[in-house]
Known about the structure:
- This protein is of the alpha+beta class.
- It has 4 helices and 5 strands, in the order αβββαββαα.
- Strands 1-2-3-5-4 form a 5-stranded antiparallel beta sheet.
- α2 crosses α4 (135-149).
- The longest helix is centred in the middle third of the chain and has 20 residues, at 55-74.
- 28% of the residues are buried.
- The structure holds adenosine monophosphate and zinc ion.
Amino acid sequence: MTDCIFCRIIRGELPATRVYEDADVLAFMDIFPLRRGHVLVIPREHQVQLHQLSPEVRGRLIDTGARIAQALYASSLQPAAAHFAINDGPAAQQSVPHVHLHVLPRYAGDGGRFLLRLLRKPFDLALGPAAAGGLEADAAAIRAALAKIDGH
Ligand code: AMP
Ligand code: ZN
């Protein structure tokens, strides 16, 4: 058992605003979103880097990220595009040593604000999750869109 923060979220020991979960993966809102609707997808299994996952779990991770993006596009958030990003090791700015796929929505004309958020990130991390308040409403919108995509 590891005390990694994402493993603790998986075990329910730390709170998270969950968007989707199944036997292989969990998706939840990033507590310091770089843009509105920023979601992290993680494997249940603790591994640090992408190549350490089995091809099956890797496939589930990427597929889930793609479906989350599809749900974001269909949701009331209506981003124009998204980044899919994995920081694959500490030297690549990986701050949590458990594989995570960022699904980071982009909105028309948000370039300036996006850059500002990136630069502010170290201060946000130091100050704590001030922005966490609106996460549940956005998660609910994404969950509703996912349910429609899945035909529920
Ligand atoms: P990275 O820099 O790729 O390791 O990204 C780690 C991400 O995890 C950052 O975007 C953080 O905002 C996010 N994060 C850290 N702790 C938590 C948490 N307890 N719940 C949700 N997201 C978190
Ligand atoms: Zn872990």
